[in-house]
Structure formats: structure tokens, C-alpha cells
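#lab-general

N.A. 3:47 PM
ok so I finally got the sequence cleaned up, no stray characters, all 563 residues accounted for. can someone with queue access submit it? mine expired

B.Y. 3:52 PM
send it over

N.A. 3:53 PM
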Amino acid sequence: MQLHFQPRLFSCLKGYSKEQFSADAMAGIIVGIVALPLAIAFGIASGVGPTEGLVTAIIAGFLISLFGGTKVQIGGPTGAFIVIIYGIIEQHGLSGLMIATIMAGILLVLMGVFKLGNVIKFVPYPVIVGFTGGIALTIFSTQMNDLFGLGIEKVPSDFVSKWICYFQNFTHINWWALAMGVLSVVVIVYTPKFSKKIPGSLVAIIIMTLVGWLLKTYGGVSLTTIGDLYTLPKGMPAPHLPSFALAEGQTFWGLIQSLFPSALTIALLGAIESLLSAMVADGVISDHHDSNTELIGQGIANIICPFFGGIPATGAIARTMTNINNGGKTPVAGIIHAVVLLLILLCLGQLVGFIPMSCLAGVLIVVSYNMSGWRSFVGLAKNPKSDFAVLITTFILTVIFDLTIAIEVGLLLAVVLFIKRTNDSTVIRSFHHEIDPSSDTDFDTHEEKLHIPERVEVYEIDGPYFFGIANKFDEVMMHTGGNNKVRIIRMRKVSFIDSTGIHNLELLCQQSQREGIQVVLSGVNENVHATLQKAGVIDMLGTENVCRHINIALERARMLAEV
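B.Y. 4:20 PM
back already:
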């Protein structure tokens, strides 16, 4: 198998012009400014800190643009990972998160190497909407402590216990914190009405940080800021290896096994979100991304990022669209965005400590609202009930349990429903006297009816012949009897046949031979014919009993019935 890895940066640099660089530089600077508050907020909400969020945006943003398969993708930490990261830290600590992220990076690289980029796109839409909405509600629920200034030191991790804890502590509301959080939301929502270029989250953070500093310094108001809870960034952290703090009686292999489900969830989530972002970007810039190269680039970023204390990263739709809307043309814009964030970290890192936690809560509440996709919920409610059931199940499992279980069960439900629909769409019909050819296309006749010879029965399979309908065919056969000598099976509408269908067909042929009945196949397409040939079914029947269309099959049946 040949490795397909062609980063878009290198092809874009051929014939690269000053005009393109100017556009990329402007877009990169703006995206870097937009990414700053989000990186800090996502880092803190994930249970790590502002430094880890910024480092992830810098390193992952740089590597995804350097090695990715899209022109305008912007990578970094996203809200989708908050729930899974928080859960890993709760169970396995920071070292467990580091190992799980590296494992997820390896899985992403393998997905790209084995060309699974297109397969990821087939994740059902209701599953995506369900877990995205569940993540949004979970993010919203994690911000109540900071929004209301409740001062709870240890908030329970599960959804129900979390809200019980909030209600028990609502008497401790800090009204100043609540006011700043609400005002932050108002500023973020209304900033686009005055300026499309300046991100509302950045405006809210600047205003509320200044107001918060004045209130704390001159008003004696108690407000919790980032500096009160976290060690402030003083530069890029040095790379380091993960520490394997094993529990008593646990082996390193046991740790890997326990982390694998979380790593797989990170990989799937990263793949889905990055490729969705790339597809959205393609539609806007009329381009076509390389999904396998993109997965490899995402994997490289997630392998390297943890060594600097970073968290999982993926393509970010909002930042990618900001890049496009501000003129970004090539991956150079993403690299410049990472450089801008690095300069902010090195030169202005200490100022991060003055940002009020309630302001960050407001930023994340807006993020969760934008993630929620409530319009998609409403739209899917009008679709088939089975799709809505998958959506609701995935949503509830994400909120009540965790994302790993939600994705597994959601995909399983979607597969089961797909099999049921395919099974329901496959029809088995039987004919005993005549066939109406009015709607058929494989007849060499202009007769109004095709007459079936005596002692001949005809069955037609309309749809794929797989394990879901094998029993259905048996049931139709059971309800037909008589002293017949030939059994014609029309397969012109069988698009594929699986191993269970082949096995079922072999048993049918063997049973028919024991009963003295000859099976004749009609209208078998090339792919199905090749499959049956390879399985030995054609040799079992004889090539003369596999006919191109129904006229030949009926003539062959007439000859066999007269013998």
C-alpha cells in the first residue's frame, strides 16, 4: 500500500506571491486574536489551565497548517473536547490525558495512512447533532459555578450531581460576578452589529478585565480571576515525557487498555470535527481538501502537543471561517496565527491573570449556544422517528454518562436502523402464472404478459441480498408449494450479495436439488456474478442455468420442465 501524504502548504508555496502573503498575514493576525480568548477558555474549562490552552493553540495550530490537507483550516483546542478531557483527568490525571492524546494522535495517523478519511464522513448526521448538542449542554452546565461566583471548590463531574450542588449553593451568589458574566454575553452578542472584524469575545474580555481590575483595586469588590486559580504563563514550557503514575497492582499495559476507549473517542471526535470543518471550508472557497493527509496532519499535532503540556486539538470551524472571511488563502495564514499567539504568550502572558472567571464563563456560554445546533434538533424532529430516536439517545447519553458511551451506542443504533431500513426496502415477490413486463427493462419482448410455463415458479429479489433478508426469502419460499421442476430467481435488482446471502443461496440450491428442482438465475449483474463465481455457486448450478435476462431464463425453464 502506497502512503498518500501531500501537505497542502508545499503545493500552495509554488508560485506564492506577495499579494497572497499580505492576505494571509492579515487573516492570520485576526485569527490569532480571535483564538486567544477561546484557547484560554477551553484550557480552563477542560480542567488544565490557560497555559495549556494557549500552548495547544500555538503548537497544534502550527503543525496542522504545516502538515494538513486543507488550504485554510485553523487547528487548536475546541469545545468538543472539554467533556472527554475533563473525564480523563478525573480518572487518570494529567499523565493519563497526555498518554491518551498521544494514542489518539497515533490512531489519527493510522486512519490517514489506511485511507479512512472518506469513511469518517459516513458517521450519521443524527449522531453528530446528538453528541454535539450534548457537549454544548455539558459545557454550559460546567460554567454555572464561575458565572454565578458560587465559589464551589470541587464541583461534581456528573451532570445531575453538578446541578444538585449548584442549587444547594445558590445562596452564595456573587452578584458582581453574575453581572460581569451576563454583560460579557451581551457584548459578545452585539459586537458583530458594530464590527464584523473584531471578535466579540476579545472585546468582552478586554472590557471586563479592565472593569474587574478597577472594581477589585478601588472598589474592594471580590472577583475571582484566572490569576487567583492558576499559575500564569511565563513562556513556552519545555518539552517533557509523561510520568507513568500507575495505581497499585496496575501495569503499564493495563493503563494503555484503560485509556484506549478515551483515546479512540478523541481520535474519532478529532477526525469528525476536522473533516466537517474542511468540508464547510471547501464549500466556501470552492476547493477540495485531502482528507487522508488532513488526518495525518491532525495526528502529528496530537502526538507532539502533549510533550509540551498541550491537550487534544482538531480543526476549528469558527476559526477556519474567520480565516476565510478575512482573506486567508493558504496554510501560511494558520502558521501566522500560531506565531501571533506565541508572541502574546511571551509578551503579554502575565496579563491573562487579570481576566475574571465570570467573563470566561460568559464566553463559553456563547460557545455552547453556538455549538448546540438547536435548529438542527428542530429540523430532525420532523424527520423519520428512528433518526430522531438516535439523536435523542446520543444526546442523553452524552449528557448523563459520557461521550465515549454516547458515540458507541449512537453508531450502533444508527447501524441497526440502517440494516432495518435496508431490510424493509428489499422486497421478495413470487410469480406462478404470468409476469407483467410493463415496468421492466430487461425484456426482449413486446408482449403484454409473459407466461410462466407449467411446473415453473419465479421469484424476484428487489434489493440487496444480505443477511438481513436471507430469512425473508426463506419465509416466502415456505408459503409456495406445488409439484414444480424449475425455480427461477430473478436477481436483476440485487445490487450486492454478502456471505450470508451466498450461504442462503447455496442452501436453497442444495435443497432444491434434493427435491428434484433445478434453480435458474436471471439478470445477475456483473459484480454479483463475479461474487457468485468466486464462491462456486455458478459452478454448482451450471453456467447454462445463469441467464442474462428473464426471456432466456423462461425458455431455459421450459426446456427443463419438459424433460
